[in-house]
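Posted in: Protein Modeling Q&A

I'm a second-year student putting together a small comparison for a lab meeting, and my supervisor asked me to include a predicted structure for Lipoprotein. I've never done this before, so apologies if this is the wrong subforum. The sequence is pasted below exactly as I got it from our records. If anyone can share the structure token output, I'd also love a short note on what stands out.
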Amino acid sequence: MKRKAIYLASLLTVILILTGCSKASTSEKKEDTLVIGTLTTPHGEILEHVKPLLEKEGVTLEIKNFDDYILPNKALADEDIDVNYFQHVPFFEQAIKENEYKFANAGAVHVEPMGLYSKKINSLDELKNGATIITSNSVSDWGRIITILQKAGLVKVKEGINLETASFDDIAENPKNLKFEHSIDPSLLTSAYTNEEGDLVAINANFAYQAKLNPVKDAILLEEDNSPYGNIIAVREEDKNDPRIKKLTKILHNKEVQNWILKKWDGSVKPVSLEKQAGE
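Accepted answer (user: helix_wrangler)
Welcome! Here is the predicted structure, written out as tokens:
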């Protein structure tokens, strides 16, 4: 009986040790792995590029691709992911306002220019009176598109309106009597372009790339560099100082990585430097 008791005690000790090791291993994996939600292009490609660089810093990057603009923030709020990288600041702020998310902006990485494309015209001179402009149903993009149109002399908003938050109802002057359709999901805008719907279609750059469109070369109208539309790293407020996230943002702002981004997309994806953000 004594020998049996000693055996059982030894077995229990081994089980406790193994359990402790298993827990430690799980904890270590959690601390060393960063799960990030993103869009395939260009965000996902950028993350795949920096993944081995982050690995050298002791952090394993697990990339989860989404195909819409709603789920990455929901996944972040639900703690299904640790961080996301897909949205510009106005969209981020609108999402927080509408959903009461407790998120923080960990810094902008790059700017993707919004462009207006057409299969019906080759230049702005060919745009007819009463032409239709198709945009997305994403309210945070409307001011961005209106800014492009105003700088091109096609519309003018009411006095005192903030262009970043302007809507189509804020347009005071519309000399060409342009018509605006803004009920389409952003991911379907390339289909509207391909099907020759409307005279101009405003397409977010990440979807334009997927349709083999180069914003710099193919857009009839293209927005100027505009830092408020930098695509950011978004985190839950309590995780803003997480060492893993700091390592990720540092690598994304590495000069060699930024040069790679410029070369990869022929200058149509523009990195946002830390110096530029500090100066804003």
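A couple of things worth pointing out for your meeting: DSSP finds eleven helices and 13 strands in the chain. Confidence is low (pLDDT under 50) at residues 11-19, 21-29.
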